[in-house]
Design brief:
GO molecular function: protein-folding chaperone binding
CATH architecture of the largest domain: Roll
Shape: elongated
Main location: membrane
Order of helices and strands: HHEEHHHHHEEEEHE
Subcellular location: Membrane
Keywords: Membrane, Transit peptide, Transmembrane, Transmembrane helix
InterPro entries: NTF2-like_dom_sf, Tim44-like, Tim44-like_dom, UCP031890_Tim44-rel
């Protein structure tokens, strides 16, 4: 039995070794078709390396899809930004079409302009200015106001302080913020917003008595403010800050 088992084992090993050698020869053999495929691949690689730079995609070009599966045309980054800005502006709800026109004029010079972002920022500025005025915080006001408006606000604060009056105020929130005007003139963008806010405000005299307002009552306040920003050149546009340049009472 042992001799027979050894003989069978040896025969099986010989067959296995022969099969492995044959399989290796087959796998390691390159046919004419393989040679042709390799040569075609090398040719394509050489042609790709010799193409002019104009045929390669540029980092500042965006490919936009077109209808009917026409060949895709490259669109420059500034042009794509302008298209996106126009879409945002036309989607922004306004009661006066002239506002949309003003927004579009601004976006032609500054494609980053976004009405939603502007109104959100104007709302934050409104709260900061109203609160700083009540506190008499001239430093905070200086960075948010034009020189003319700053001079008017600080003069009012000085008069209040001379009388010994103080304002106790709590800013509750903005109920509504509507853009009523927008224009671009001589490279300066101007946007006017009507704010309807809720405040708790009371003015105290130097004896501490309330002489205006009510410290226990929420009052609706309407302000119409105009913000401006110079966008006439690239250097000016690098400054993203809008300043309050005018205030007016509602009609």
């Amino acid at each position: 039995m042992n001799g027979q088992f050894d003989l069978i084992t040896i025969i099986a090993l010989v067959i296995a070794v022969a099969a492995i050698i044959k399989l290796r020869n087959v796998l390691g053999h390159r046919t004419d078709d393989d040679e042709k495929r390799v040569e075609r691949l090398k040719t394509r690689e050489r042609e790709a390396g010799q193409r002019p730079a104009t045929e390669t995609a540029s980092a500042d070009v965006i490919t936009m899809p077109r209808r009917d599966r026409e060949p895709l045309a490259p669109v420059s980054a500034p042009e794509a930004a302008a298209t996106n800005a126009e879409a945002r502006i036309r989607a922004y709800p306004v009661s006066d079409p002239a506002v949309t026109t003003g927004f579009l004029d601004i976006a032609k010079v500054d494609p980053t302009f976004d009405p939603d972002a502007f109104v959100a920022g104007a709302g934050r500025a409104y709260e900061m200015i109203v609160s700083a005025f009540a506190e008499g915080n001239r430093k905070a006001l200086k960075d948010l106001l034009s020189k003319e408006v700053y001079d008017g606000f600080t003069a009012a604060i000085a008069e209040r302080e001379a009388r010994g009056e103080t304002i106790e105020q709590q800013f509750v929130g903005i109920r509504k913020a509507d853009v009523v005007e927008a224009e671009l003139k001589n490279g300066v963008a101007s946007v006017t917003v009507r704010f309807v806010s809720e405040l708790i405000s009371a003015t105290h005299d130097k004896a501490g008595e309330v002489i205006a307002g009510d410290a226990q009552k929420i009052t609706d306040v309407t302000d119409i403010w105009t913000f401006s920003r110079d966008i006439s050149n690239a250097k000016a546009r690098s400054n993203l800050n809008w300043r309050l340049v005018a205030t007016q009472a509602p009609n």
